[in-house]
Amino acid sequence: MRLDKNSDGVDLDAYFRRIGYNGPREPSLSVLNDIVHAHVLTIPFENLDGLLGRAICLDAGSLQQKLVRSPRGGYCFEQNGLLLLVLEAMGFDVAPISARVKIGYPRGEITPRTHLVVRVELEGESWLADVGVGGLSPTAALKLELDREQETPHETRRIVRDGDLYIHQALLAGQWEDVTQMTLEQMPLIDREVANWYTSTHPNSRFKNVLMVARAAPGGVRLTLLNDTFSVRDAAGQATKTPIHTPTEMLDLLAEHFGVHLPESDRDRLPLIRG
Q: Which of 157, 148, 31, 131 is nearest to 78 (CA)?
C-alpha cells in the first residue's frame, strides 16, 4: 500500500550503510529478517530528545537525519516509522499497526495506544516487524500465526489471542511475558503524530520521566540503560547490572555501547535520573 507523501525521498543506500547491510534488496522474508536483525543491533532505542525538551518529528527527512545521518536512535514512532518508509521504498507491502506496550503491566491494565508495529504481507502471509519496543525489540519478523513458538536470534516469541486482542509475547527466563497488545487496526500518520505528541511532551508520559536506551548485541545479548543502571542480559536471560554514579559515566556508556555521542550543549543538560 502507499503510505503517504512522506514515503518519498528515502535514501536506501545511506540507511543500509547505517545498519551495515550489504545483502539483496528484493522483497522477501529472508531480506526482511536480515534488515530487522541489522537494524535492532545497530540503531539504539532511546528517548533522550524527550528528556531534553526537544521536539520529535516523524516526517521522512527528520527520521533519516536523526536515525541515519546523525547518527542517533529513537523510540517506536521514529524506529518503526523509518522501517515503514524503507520497506515500502524497497517494494514490500506494508501497513502501520497501532499497539499498546504491555511490558511490566498486568494483562487487564489498559496502557496508552502509543506504539507502532509494521505489518508486512509476503506471498499471502502476514508478518509483524517491530524494531522499536526497547530492550525487547524482536530481531526477526514474527509470523501472524496464533500459538506458534517462533525462534529469533534472541528470545523465542509467540502471538496469542485474548478475545479480540492479539498479544505478542516473549519467553523470558522460562516464562511467557506480554510485550505488546494489538487489534491489528491501522495507525495512519496523523494518529501517530497525535500519539507522538502525548508520548514526547505530556508530563505524565513515561518517556518524560524515565531514561531508556537499549540495543541488541550478537549472541542473544541485550544492552539496556535504564535511569542510573546499565544492564547486560545474556542469551539465557541472566542480567549483570552496573550502577551509574555520575553523568560522565552515563555519557561514556552511551558512547561506548550505543554509539550515541551528544554535543556539549546536550551533555550538560541530559539528566541522570536516579532509581
A: 131
Q: Pick the catalytic residue from 39, 115, 154, 168.
A: 115
- Catalytic residue chosen out of the listed positions 37, 39, 57, 76: 76
Q: SS3 for the chain, per residue?
A: CCCCHHHCCCCHHHHHHHHCCCCCCCCCHHHHHHHHHHHHHHCCEECHHHHCCCCCCCCHHHHHHHHHHCCCCECHHHHHHHHHHHHHHHCCEEEEEEEEECCCCCCCCCCCCCEEEEEEEECCEEEEECCCCHHHCCCCCEECCECCCECCCCCCEEEEEECCEEEEEEEECCEEEEEEEECCCECCHHHHHHHHHHHHHCCCCHHHCCCEEEEEEHHHEEEEEECCEEEEECCCCCEEEEECCCHHHHHHHHHHHHCCCCCHHHHCCCCCCCC
Domains identified in the chain and CATH numbers: 5-267 (3.30.2140.20)
Q: What is the pLDDT of residue 176?
A: 96
Q: Which of 130, 154, 168, 178 is catalytic?
A: 130
Q: Is 228 a catalytic residue?
A: no
Q: Which grid cell is 88?
A: 515500502
Span 197-207, average pLDDT: 96
Q: Is 130 a catalytic residue?
A: yes
Please, what's the largest Cα pairwise distance for the chain? 52
* 245 given a catalytic annotation: no
Residue 8's pLDDT is what? 58
| Whether the predicted model's global pTM rises above the 0.85 cut | yes
